[in-house]
Write a structure and sequence with these properties.
Shape: elongated
Distance between the termini: 42 Å
Helix content: over 70%
Largest sheet: none
Number of strands: 0
Order of helices and strands: HH
Radius of gyration: 16 Å
Structural class: mainly alpha
Number of helices: 2
Strand content: under 5%
Length: 72
């Protein structure tokens, strides 16, 4: 069964999710660089994961701070 949460708790959860996504983005970006010379396939996979986390960050940033980041 799903739990009901108030808006403050929802905001806290979204901030935690954003922090987690930012950490994962940094981790995969570093992994991409580490593997670039030795394992191009794994580096490509890490790069795809980096892009995925960047997308998550953009969405969460727009939810948490609407209009703060403009496209471009």
């Amino acid at each position: 069964m799903s739990e009901v949460v108030d808006s403050d708790e929802l905001l806290r959860r979204m901030h935690r999710a954003r922090s987690c996504a930012a950490e994962q983005e940094r981790t995969w970006r570093a992994r991409t660089e580490e593997l670039r010379a030795t394992d191009p396939d794994a580096s490509r996979d890490a790069s795809v994961r980096t892009v995925a986390y960047e997308a998550v960050l953009r969405v969460l940033d727009e939810i948490l701070t609407p209009g703060r980041h403009s496209e471009g």
